[in-house]
Structures are given as structure tokens and as C-alpha cells.
Amino acid sequence: GDAGQVGGRMRSFERLNDVERIAVSDARGALIYQTRPPADARAGARQQGRAFIGDARGMLGSVEVSMATASIGRAVASASLRGAPWAVLCIGLLAWASWYLGALAGGKIERLMEAVDRTDRGESVDLPDMTRNSEIGALSRAFADLRRRLGEEESRRRKLEEQRDDMTNMLVHDMKHPLTVFRMVLVLLGEMTKASLSKDAADAVAMANRSTYTLDAMIDGVLQTARLENADGAPPRVRMSIGKFLNDCAEVDSLIARNSGKQWSLQVDPLVTDRWVLANSPLLRRLIGNLVLNAVDYSPSGALLTLCAQPSESDRSSVEIAVINEVNNIDGEPASLLDGKYKSDGERSHVGLGLAFCKMAAKLHSGRMTAKRRPDGTVSFSVTLPMGGAQPETHRVKQEAACHETA
User: What span, in angstroms and rounded, lies between the C-alpha atoms of 173 and 43?
Assistant: First the structure.
């Protein structure tokens, strides 16, 4: 409460440059002491604070302090100047550490990828001493060991498949000779006893003879498919006239169709009659024959089988040769029969390997196999092949051909 000593006690605070003003007032608010002139006498931003002083008897007075904010800015600037070199140093250290760790990891990844590539090529991987016992070395050895074991398993699998195919083909091939002898004996037996056999016995011999032909066709299918699967390249091919080739096919296939109780028709578009395909005649002949046998199996008695040829609708430089039949017992889409081998309902003998053979033979001739259900209810199995020769000069008269889809 001694106001007289305030000036002496507060004088030491006048040396603080950051303090703009210190004012001490009594309980009534009258100014007792101040270190600087009033705040409104100086320019610049400032921050003020006031504290009240009192005891048990009540309030004795107050102390007001004004601080210049410019001093805070100077302090921050001074700290920035002193801290900038350290900040640059720290950032540089962080950048160097990031680059070093990235280069180290990148080098390891690069060595790992190189080891994987060399392992994939079957080459030995020579790792540096510093990498041999690291994670990269462990991964490289694991990759090499995995590739070695997979290679051994693949080699064993291929050997077993070759043994299986060789055994199957050998057995099937060995069956062909006794089957041929048996068929010849049946034919000879039928001719020798033709007059003396009863109708039932003659029908039984004829049935046995037909069964031998069916079995012979199945054996041919297995052998033909095996030859195509093991072929090293495309078979030798020659130019073949499309019209003449289909006429030759029809001479045999028409007999098969009629002897099976079916009707037969051959229709060749004049635009392709005199043109040619580059093909292996026996291979393409068997392809057409398999399609006809397939149509015979799936057609009801009295159905019409049509062998036809026309320019492909999608590519006029190709010919589409199709076998069309009236079918009533194919479930689902006909194209599904081309997707794999041995797809059969257990009653028909020319499905499965026959169509698989056709698909492979078409591929060897740079062609493709298709099967579809037509709007008129018939089903067509066709092969599309590249076609050569000049386009006929005469224009084709519009007519409804069997090869075209009709509603």
C-alpha cells in the first residue's frame, strides 16, 4: 500500500525494450506510476493486459502492461534466421536418406527381377556375395527351386501323356487288322450262305457287318485324330477344284445317306464351282465324310441331308462347305459339340472324336469349323476355307439355295 515506493521498484522494468508501457493505478483508478507515455502516443500494433492487486481488506489497485507485437515478429524472424541453416540441413539429410533407401531397395528389386528372369529362362543365377545371404538371395533360390520342381513335374506329365497316347494308338491300330479280317469273313460268309440263310439269320449277318463298319469308323477317328495332334506342320496341299471335289465326295456320301434311310441333295453355288481351295485331299475328304456320318447319326429316318457350298457371308474370298440335316435330337446349341472330344449321348458312334478331328483338320487348312441351328429348324455343320481363283463374270441369278438361311 505504499505508493511512494512504486517508482523505485518499477524503474528496473524500463530497460525492457519489448515493454511499451507499465501503468500502476490505485483503487480509485488514479494513475500512480507509468514507465512510458500513454499507449495512444506511440504507433504500431500492441497487446495489452491488466491485473488487479488486493488483499483481505479489498482491492488496492491495478497494473496494466502493453507489449509491442513488432517485437514478437522480430523474435520470430531472428529465430528463423538462426534455424534456417538447421532446417536446410535436416531436409537435406532426409532427402539423402530417402534417396539412399530408395536406391538400396531399387537395387534389390532390380537384382531380384534379374534373378527371376534368368530363372525363367533356365539360366543359373550367380548372386553377389553381399546378396547371397540376404532376402533377395533367399527369394532367388526359392524361385529357382520352384522352377526346377515344376519343370520336373511337367516333364513327367508329358512323358506319361505320351505313353498313354502311344498305348492307346497302338491298341487301336492293332485292332484294325483283326477287325478287317472279321469284316471280310462276314461278307464272304454272307455271300456263301446267301441262299440257304433264313431272313432272320441274313438280317443278323447284315447287322454284324454294319457294326464292323461302325467300329472301323471309330478306329479311324482315333487314329486320324492322333495323327493330327502329333503332326509337326501343315500337311502337303494341292489346288483342288471345289465343284469337282464335292462331286467326288457326293458319290460316296450319297450312298451312305441313302443306305441309312436318308434323302440326299448336293447344291454348289455357281460362284464357287470353278474356283479352288488349297487342301490335302484325303484329309479334307475325311472331314466331309465325318460331317456326313455325324448328320446320319442325328437325323431321323427319311430326313434330307444336303451337302452344299457357297461364298462365306462374312468373307467373300472364302468358301463355306456345309452339311445340313433335319435334326430332332440335339439338346442345346450344336456348337457345343465342337468344344471337346468324346461328347456323345452313348448311342451314336460318330460324335466326339469325329468332330474334334474336323476342327483340327480345318485349323490345319487355315479354316474354321462352325455349327448352328438355322431358322427353318435344320442344323448345319460347316467348314470355311480360303478360296482361290477368279470370280466368275456371269452374275448369279437370285434363287433360294439350301445353304442360305430361310425363315
Answer: 116
State the Cα–Cα distance between residues 171 and 360, nearest whole angstrom: 23
What is the rounded distance in angstroms from the CA atom of residue 334 to the CA atom of residue 321?
17
pLDDT number for residue 338: 66
Q: How far apart are CA 188 and CA 229, in angstroms?
A: 37
Q: Is the pLDDT of residue 106 over 60?
A: yes
Can you give the pLDDT at residue 332? 62
Question: How do 379-386 and 368-373 pair as beta strands?
Answer: antiparallel
Q: Is the pTM of this model over 0.85?
A: no
As given in the structure block, the three cell numbers for residue 237 are 496341299
Q: Say if residues 361 and 283 touch (Cβ distance below 8 Å).
A: yes
- Residue 58: per-residue pLDDT: 82
Query: What does the pLDDT look like over 61-99, one tens digit per residue?
Result: 888 888 777 666 777 777 777 777 878 888 888 888 887
- Residues 6 or more apart whose CB falls under 8 angstroms from that of 33 comprise 3, 6, 7, 10, 22, 23, 24
Tell me the torsion sign for CA atoms 215, 217, 218, 223: positive
CB 35 within 8 A of CB 22: yes
- 3-state secondary structure labels for all residues of the chain: CCHHHHHHHHHHHHHCCCEEEEEEEECCCCEEEECCCCHHHCCCCEEEEEEEEEECCEEEEEEEEEEEHHHHHHHHHHHHHHHHHHHHHHHHHHHHHHHHHHHHHHHHHHHHHHHHHHHHCCCCCCCCHHHHCCHHHHHHHHHHHHHHHHHHHHHHHHHHHHHHHHHHHHHHHHHHHHHHHHHHHHHHHHHHCCCCCCHHHHHHHHHHHHHHHHHHHHHHHHHHHHHHHCCCCCCCCEEEEHHHHHHHHHHHHHHHHHHCCCEEEEEECHHHHCCEEEECHHHHHHHHHHHHHHHHHHCCCCCEEEEEEEECCCCCCEEEEEEEECCCCCCCCHHHHHCCCCCCCCCCCCCCHHHHHHHHHHHHCCCEEEEEECCCCCEEEEEEEECECCCCCCCCCCCCCCCCCCC
Q: Going by C-beta distance under 8 Å and a sequence separation of 6 or more, which residues neighbour residue 220?
A: 286
